[in-house]
Amino acid sequence: MMVLRGLLQKFPARKSAIGAKLVTFLLNDCLFQIPHGSGAGSDGAPRKPLCMNSASRGAALRLLAVLSRDCLENLGIVLKYLREFAGRASWRSNKTSDWAITHLDDEKSLTGYVGLKNLGCICYMISLF
After folding, report:
1. Whole-angstrom distance between the N-terminal and C-terminal Cα of the chain?
2. Which of 53, 85, 109, 126 shows the greatest Cβ crowding within 10 Å of its Cβ?
3. Distance from C-alpha of 22 to C-alpha of 60, rounded to nearest angstrom
């Protein structure tokens, strides 16, 4: 991914030629694949994202950023995917308390930690933005 990113930075005219398939592959298979029974592989196990560790996820996100920079077609694919992803309820928590968050509620937990509740892939979506 790093080599491909470097090549695309050197030859940006190639982004639109390979972008549609590569952006879709990065989003669907590498980064945001949600394991579930209907998408099972040949062994019957649910499919997991191909990029499982932080190094490979970071490389995929950086490649996605290069593909989307100065290429409206690729950026459109990313934005459409994120819009559809946010519209699906399969990744969200079913607990109502997770979605009723205000700035005054739960300012500090009993353990003393402060932060965001992770409702599913939030850190990856924020880094993509």
Report:
1. 20
2. 85
3. 10
Q: Concatenated DSSP letters for 89-120?
A: STTS-S-HHHH---SSTTSS-TTS-------S
Non-local (6+) Cβ contacts of 116 within 8 A are 122
63-77 per-position pLDDT tens digit: 999 999 988 999 999
Orientation of helix 54-68 relative to helix 72-87, angle to 10°: 130
- 3-class secondary-structure state, position 1: coil
pLDDT per residue as tens digits for the range 54-104? 899 999 999 999 999 988 999 999 999 888 877 766 556 666 665 555 555
Domain range annotation of the chain: 2-128
